[in-house]
Amino acid sequence: MIGSRPILRPREIDVARLIAVGLTSKQIARKLGISPLTVRKHRENAMRNLNVHSLAELIDATRRLGFVNTPSEPYRTTNG
């Protein structure tokens, strides 16, 4: 952690945001141009770094940390 904010890599944030807005792993993979296996690894890393154990907790943490403000917020990648 840096201060009170957990360290997540940009792609982990991207994947967590897309999960939070309701996309499946296959949809996330297509949107980001990566494989579903890579999506899974980013999700697992984000969950470990946030110390959460379910997708519901990941979504809650993603929103609580300000990565997604509302369920209907449009998706933007971390690099613009």
Automatic annotation (TrEMBL):
GO terms classed as biological process: regulation of DNA-templated transcription
Every HTH luxR-type domain range: 1-66
Annotated keywords: DNA-binding, Transcription, Transcription regulation
Transmembrane segment boundaries: none
Family annotation (InterPro entries): Sig_transdc_resp-reg_C-effctor, Tscrpt_reg_LuxR_C, WH-like_DNA-bd_sf
Record protein name field: HTH luxR-type domain-containing protein
CDD domains in UniProt: LuxR_C_like
Molecular function terms from GO: DNA binding
Keyword Acetylation: no
Pfam entry (one): GerE
